[in-house]
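Board notes (copied after class):
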Amino acid sequence: MYCSNCGAEVNDNAVVCIKCGCAVNQPKMPSVNGGSSKDWLVTLLLCFFVGCFGIHRFYVGKTGTAIVQLITCGGCGIWTLIDFIVICMGNFTDAEGKFIKNRP
């Protein structure tokens, strides 16, 4: 593997480059437990039907942003639409930062 900053060759297990001290970008390994325990379909349906009230954010544990979304009616719908797209793409995370993915 090569350092993205200086181009020096670094060990595959290295965290930083020995030559420049820059952090080495390593691909993240998939988690063993498969991500969030929250259900993707439930999150998607909550966002679609009552997303303007932030219910889907309450469901995944993001209480602070859920209250803001409740007060602003989902950012006049724009925030809800963005959340819906992010959930559909599988990039929405729960309060612990784990991805909520559609499981087969």
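Comment from the instructor: DSSP finds five helices and no strands in the chain. Residues 31-104 form one domain.
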